[in-house]
Amino acid sequence: MEISEHCEGNVLVAKAMDQRVDARLAPELKQRLLAFVADGHPLIALDLSEVDFIDSSGLGAIVGALKQINGQGDLVIVGAKPAVMNLFRLTRMDKVFRMFGAADEAVAALSN
Question: Is the pTM of this model over 0.90?
Answer without folding.
Answer: yes
